[in-house]
Amino acid sequence: MTIQRTTAVPTDEQIRALHERYAPTEAAFDLVYTHCRIVCAVAEQLLDRYPSALDVDLVRAGCLLHDVGVYRLFDAAGRLDHGNYVRHGVLGHGLLRALGFPEVVSRFCSHHTGVGLSRDDVVRQGLPLPVDDYLAETVEEQLVMYADSFHSKTTPPTFVSVRSYSAGVRRFGADKVARFAALVDMFGEPDLGPLAHRHQQPIV
User: Fold this and answer.
1) Looking at the 3D structure of the chain, how many domains does it have?
2) Which among 35, 48, 58 is positioned nearest to 136, based on CA atoms?
3) pLDDT digit string, tens, across residues 115-169
4) Is residue 84 part of a domain?
5) Contact indicator for 63, 36 with CB cutoff of 8 Å
C-alpha cells in the first residue's frame, strides 16, 4: 500500500537535472544516476509488497538522490576518491540542504550507508565523519537504505544477493548482520533477475 506525498519533493526531471549539473563527467553521471535508478526500481518492487502505507513520492526521491554526494568525491580527471567514499552521504546531505531541499529529503543522503552508521561506529572505526548517528529512522529511510544494498557501483557494477550482502556485512560485526536480517524480514527479498538482465549486469 502507498500513500501520496506528505511533503514537497522534487520531480524525477528536477532530480535528473541536478545529477547532470553536479556530475563532473559523463561517466560519473552514468555510474551514479544509473545506480540511483536501479535502487529506485528495487524499492518500488518492495513497496508493492509492504503492508503498511508509505510515502511513495518520498521514497522515490530518496532513491534517486541518495548518492548525489558521490560527485563531490571525483577529481578534475574523473578519478573517484575511494579513501573518503564514506563521506559521500554527508556531502550529499550538505549539498541538498544548501540547495534548499527539505530536511526529510536531504537525510536520505546521510542515512543510507550500509545498514546504518552509529556514533559508536564513527568513533570506533575512525571514520572521517562528524561524530553523530547516521541511522535510518523512518520506514521510508529504511527502505531506501535496504534497496541500496542490492546494487554496487563496483567496476563493473553488480547486483548483490541477500546471501552475498549478509556475508559481506559480517566483517562489521554480528549486530550489522542482525540488522540486515531484520530488514529482510521487514521488506522481503527483491527479484533481481529481471533488473540484472535489463542492465546486463551480474548478480553476485
Assistant:
1) 1
2) 58
3) 999 999 999 999 999 999 999 999 999 999 999 999 999 999 999 999 999 999 9
4) yes
5) yes
- Per the domain annotation, does 103 fall within a domain? yes
Q: Residues 148-164, buried b or exposed e (16+ Cβ, 10 A)?
A: bbbbbbeeebbbbbbeb
- Give residue 127's domain range: 2-199
Answer yes or no: is pLDDT of 6 > 50: no
Name the phi and psi angles at 129, rounded to 5. -135, 150
User: Are 23 and 69 a contacting pair, CB within 8 Å?
Assistant: no
* pLDDT value for 49: 84
Q: Are 169 and 114 in contact (CB under 8 A)?
A: yes
In a domain, 64, yes or no: yes
Q: Could you tell me if residue 204 is inside a domain? A: no
The cell numbers describing 128, all together, are 572521517
Contact 52, 139 (CB under 8 A): yes
Minimal CA–CA distance to 65: which of 104, 102, 92? 92
Question: Can you list the positions of beta strands (E) in the chain?
Answer: 2-3, 54-55, 151-152, 158-159
CATH code, domain carrying 152? 1.10.3210
Beta strand 151-152 pairing with 54-55:
unpaired
User: For residue 4, is pLDDT > 60?
Assistant: no
Task: Answer whether residue 50 shows pLDDT above 90.
Answer: no
